[in-house]
Design brief:
Blueprint (H helix, E strand, L loop, with lengths): L3 E6 L2 E6 L20 E7 L3 E3 L5 E8 L13 E7 L8 H6 L34 E7 H4 L5 E10 L5 E3 L3 E6 L4
Parallel strand pairs: 2-7, 4-10
Antiparallel strand pairs: 1-2, 3-5, 5-7, 6-8, 8-9, 8-10
Length: 178
């Protein structure tokens, strides 16, 4: 299930997507690859989570071009999480998003491409120059996380097909209090 909320800010579009997007098994992102259309970075909603809380990654895409661009809700991305013992187990839904053989296809064939239109008097077809597209991903939708230290980065494909790697962020899940 996808939950989308859009908020208004000057020259910015913020779209929050909780846990649903397209993940592709394609070429690896080139370290230091730069897009001519947008830049991407990530952060966490907080650095320390208690067991049972949902760690969330915030992906911020900034339009660095001189024209409005359309960033679709299912902008192609890959999430990478590493724990103290390597990559945590993937959830069933994440394995479906990756298109693992033997699993049923996602209902409806996966997310559809819905453009983001900024609110306001002047309508742009897409994110205006300097505008922001912000998405939020619930990591518990993608991974079975246990208490420990984790690092996260994402790979995002720009509008021309270039795969870019974001910065790396860290978070911790604390064990339950006795």
């Amino acid at each position: 299930m996808r939950i989308v909320q859009t908020f208004s800010q000057p020259s910015a579009v913020i779209a929050l997507i909780v846990g649903s997007s397209m993940i592709l098994n394609c070429q690896n992102a080139t370290e230091g690859a730069k897009s001519t259309s947008f830049s991407s970075s990530i952060s966490m909603t907080q650095e320390i989570y208690e067991t049972g809380q949902k760690p969330r990654v915030i992906l911020t895409n900034k339009n660095i071009s001189k024209k409005a661009i359309i960033l679709y809700y299912d902008l192609e991305w890959r999430m990478h999480v590493e724990g103290e013992k390597g990559e945590p187990p993937l959830t069933y839904r994440h394995r479906q998003l990756r298109g693992e053989p033997g699993l049923p296809a996602l209902e409806g064939g996966g997310p559809s491409k819905i453009p983001i239109y900024p609110p306001g008097e002047k309508q742009y077809e897409g994110t205006p120059p300097g505008g922001l597209d912000v998405r939020q991903f619930d990591l518990t939708f993608l991974y079975d996380l246990t208490p420990g230290q984790y690092t996260v980065y994402m790979e995002v494909q720009d509008t021309t097909g270039i795969w870019m790697r974001t910065n790396t962020v860290h978070f911790e899940i604390r064990p339950p209090n006795p």
